[in-house]
Amino acid sequence: MASNNYYDPADLRKFGEITEWSEELGTKFFDYYGKVFEEGALTAREKALIALAVAHTEQCPYCIDAYTKDTLQRGVTKEQMMEAIHVGAAIKSGATLVHGTMMMNKVNKLEM
Amino acid sequence: MAKLKQQSLQKRDAELANAKRQVEILSNGIFANGELPTFAKKIKEINKLPLRPKKLEILQINVGYMCNQVCEHCHVDAGPDRKEIMTWETMELALEVIKNTGAHTLDLTGGAPEMNPHFRRFVEEASKAGIKDFIVRSNLTIIRANKKYHDLPEFFKKHNVHVVSSMPHWTKGKTDKQRGEGVFDMSITALQQLNAIGYGMPDSGLRLDLVYNPNGAYLPGDQASMEKEFKHALMEDFGIQFHNLFAITNLPIARFLDYLIASENYEDYMYQLVEAYNPAAVENVMCTNTISISWDGYLFDCDFNQMLKLPVASKVKHLKDYNEDLLNDRNIVISQHCYGCTAGAGSSCQGTVTE
Ligand code: SF4
Ligand code: SF4
């Protein structure tokens, strides 16, 4: 059943099957996962938007597929979805740039 | 996303205007090769095959396929070009049935039911029958479409009609994309008009419910949280109030099926429906308490089967032979579109079917 691609959309549907090769851990994971996304101090909708942003920073095609659909189902507009991704992108680029201070510290220490 | 079409499938002579072809598509492919289980197989697992009706509660009458809109997802394939309209003679047969039925709810649908030339006379007569809940499914824009419809809210109020209206989203962009340019603004005006005479107000007996259905190849979100969003946004932006929101799943038939196939979403959508299959929803699918009557007086298990031209499996096939006891003793005709009624919390014309 090998496909010619590393990523196959059909594999997303098989996600649940990971439990078959390690039942206890798989089950624990899915219980945890399900619980995380339940309505809590944050609404399920807020959680879905966070997941969408993180799906992009993690660049996971499966998660992007799943949470694009999930946020649409929750009535999120495409403007809101794009803004959430910008939040992820801003943190990603900010996280890169803020390390620039490390570089600056090092330069300042090394240079006479 | 395909562009909004201005004509019905029928008018365009499209392949899917043919109901037989639709049923074929729903039975072939991924369901014929065993990739996905058929609906029959699925409900057999829980001893629900054959699917049988319970007590009849709702008579849903489709008074015609003509509509002022041509929504892309329409399972009726309705539009201004559809000429199937219930005649007064058929309405008289329907009135006889309404007077004698054990059902507590009468539900008029279309198309835009208001476009039937006998609509008002029919409502006047039917409202005398003492049915507890008298629903008209109004698409809202019809109220603004033409001067002669502007007074519909007052007419509804006079006959204590329960108005159920579709509103695909609380934003203009999403609404207009599904239902056509300008639909959002017209719907807002119509809702304000209904609110102004008491419809949808918190303690009002004049019921105003909204129907939400997704704007593409995905399932509706949780009904209660969608209702919260709708209420908040419509109140905040327009001061509009309503009672309940029904979240309805798009069934893969007619224009929605056409869209699914054209956008290459059909298989994924069927997978979604089958994966979201909820055995608990089977108990209360719409056909277990509803009879659907077509514009020409024929009887169906639901409005969807009506559009697929799958008549009731009963000796009683038409209003003129109507016999409720005999009719209720039948097996419901099912196919793969039925998965749309059992996905997630389930879906019916009254919204979800499970707690
Ligand atoms: S979905 Fe309703 S309003 Fe839209 S075309 Fe069909 S019948 Fe008319
Ligand atoms: S599509 Fe009609 S027949 Fe099938 S489950 Fe739904 S209501 Fe019943």
Automatic annotation (TrEMBL), chain A:
<dbReference type="InterPro" id="IPR003779">
    <property type="entry name" value="CMD-like"/>
</dbReference>
<feature type="domain" description="Carboxymuconolactone decarboxylase-like">
    <location>
        <begin position="24"/>
        <end position="96"/>
    </location>
</feature>
<protein>
    <submittedName>
        <fullName>Alkyl hydroperoxide reductase AhpD</fullName>
    </submittedName>
</protein>
<dbReference type="InterPro" id="IPR029032">
    <property type="entry name" value="AhpD-like"/>
</dbReference>
<dbReference type="Pfam" id="PF02627">
    <property type="entry name" value="CMD"/>
</dbReference>
<dbReference type="GO" id="GO:0051920">
    <property type="term" value="F:peroxiredoxin activity"/>
</dbReference>
<dbReference type="InterPro" id="IPR004675">
    <property type="entry name" value="AhpD_core"/>
</dbReference>
<dbReference type="InterPro" id="IPR026445">
    <property type="entry name" value="AlkhydPrxdase/COmuclacdeCOase"/>
</dbReference>
UniProtKB/TrEMBL annotation, chain B:
<keyword id="KW-0949">S-adenosyl-L-methionine</keyword>
<dbReference type="InterPro" id="IPR007197">
    <property type="entry name" value="rSAM"/>
</dbReference>
<dbReference type="InterPro" id="IPR026351">
    <property type="entry name" value="rSAM_ArsS-like"/>
</dbReference>
<dbReference type="GO" id="GO:0003824">
    <property type="term" value="F:catalytic activity"/>
</dbReference>
<dbReference type="InterPro" id="IPR013785">
    <property type="entry name" value="Aldolase_TIM"/>
</dbReference>
<dbReference type="InterPro" id="IPR058240">
    <property type="entry name" value="rSAM_sf"/>
</dbReference>
<keyword id="KW-0479">Metal-binding</keyword>
<dbReference type="GO" id="GO:0051536">
    <property type="term" value="F:iron-sulfur cluster binding"/>
</dbReference>
<feature type="domain" description="Radical SAM core">
    <location>
        <begin position="61"/>
        <end position="197"/>
    </location>
</feature>
<keyword id="KW-0408">Iron</keyword>
<dbReference type="Pfam" id="PF04055">
    <property type="entry name" value="Radical_SAM"/>
</dbReference>
<dbReference type="GO" id="GO:0046872">
    <property type="term" value="F:metal ion binding"/>
</dbReference>
<dbReference type="InterPro" id="IPR024521">
    <property type="entry name" value="ArsS-like_C"/>
</dbReference>
<protein>
    <submittedName>
        <fullName>Radical SAM/Cys-rich domain protein</fullName>
    </submittedName>
</protein>
<dbReference type="Pfam" id="PF12345">
    <property type="entry name" value="DUF3641"/>
</dbReference>
<feature type="domain" description="Arsenosugar biosynthesis radical SAM protein ArsS-like C-terminal">
    <location>
        <begin position="219"/>
        <end position="352"/>
    </location>
</feature>
<keyword id="KW-0411">Iron-sulfur</keyword>
